[in-house]
Amino acid sequence: MVIDLPFPWVTLLSATLIIALAYTIYGLTGFGSSITAVPLLTHFLPLRSVVPMMLIFDLGAGIVLGLRNRSAVARDELLRIIPFMVAGMLVGVTLLVRAPQRPLLVTLGCFILAYAAWNLAFRAPQRSISVAWAAPLALLGGLFTALFGTGGPIYVAYLARRLPDVRALRATISTLIFFSGLARLVLFTSVGLYKQPHVLQLALALLPVVMGGLYLGSHLSRKLPAHRIVQAVWGILIAGGTSLIWHNL
């Protein structure tokens, strides 16, 4: 089947390379697809097209990789987070549909730089935090999840200080992110983001690139040192966040 897409070849080639990079990183590290791809893709495509397209890829990747260790999920933490996360998503979808794109992209660039700087600067052992942080962080995470697909680091910041068991942490995060993807799919469909011309066609055309990136990343993860991979991810995030702010200011 041939998919006819009305985009310049530079846009299609750039999108292909960006998606391949983002999902190779996902396969290597288990995170980082949207926070890597979204700031780069918005140089070539509208934010309102990029975010729903990335959601399709993330759901596909989640189905392929599966929800592992489901028995270890901390259900009490999910019950604290999900209601506030959904409330934040409602605000985020409203902003995504109605707010001007340029301020949103500057906000995304600042968020990415702050996230990268935090991870590079603070390496001290993390202490446990109160459940009172669940509501504000879940609201903020839901907001950034709906706006940019980048709320994952905020959920991790909370859960990593609540769940000392690594297996429980990974299972809870993967379940939460997969649920947030389903919730966003409902919200994006209800506000008509998937009615935009060529969003679904472009996602379908790039889906094999996603799967190829996942395979390559999983293969490389057994051969490359983990600390080098993480350093490369931070470098990409800093470059992407800086370019967003520069381009939109």
UniProtKB/TrEMBL annotation:
Q: Which residues cross the membrane?
A: 6-26, 47-66, 78-97, 104-121, 133-159, 171-193, 199-217, 229-246
Q: Can you quote a single GO CC term?
A: plasma membrane
Has the keyword Methyltransferase been applied to this entry?
no
The annotated topology with respect to the bilayer is:
Multi-pass membrane protein
- Read off the InterPro entries from this record: TM_pro_TauE-like, TSUP
Cellular localisation: Cell membrane
Hydrolase found in the keyword field = no
Protein name in the entry: Probable membrane transporter protein
Write out the entry's keywords from A to Z.
Cell membrane, Membrane, Transmembrane, Transmembrane helix, Transport
Q: Which family does it belong to?
A: Belongs to the 4-toluene sulfonate uptake permease (TSUP) (TC 2.A.102) family.
Organism whose genome encodes this protein? Thiomonas delicata
